[in-house]
Amino acid sequence: xxxxxxxxxxxxxxxxxxxxxxxxxxxxxxxxxxxxxxxxxxxxxxxxxxxxxxxxxxxxxxxxxxxxxxxxxxxxxxxxxxxxxxxxxxxxxxxxxxxxx
Length: 101
Hints:
Layout: H1 12-43, H2 47-60, H3 65-77, H4 84-94
Helix pairs in contact: 1-2, 1-3, 3-4
């Protein structure tokens, strides 16, 4: 018995929401990878452990990992000072390994 293709239809809004979530994830990936690289280099840890540490610190301080914590860490290591809202977190968590803190 043939089945109708209507059973697999999702509302268009679901597809748009999924696309928006995917775009957001793809946009944040590079900065998270860079922040992981900072920790891998400074702490001589695996990339998996670096991500776990970033995730843990973001949860502890109730800040988003993506363009908040990861971007602040990368900017601080790069010598940028305009990350004021997250500066205290960076100093507290990684001040001894981040040269510009």
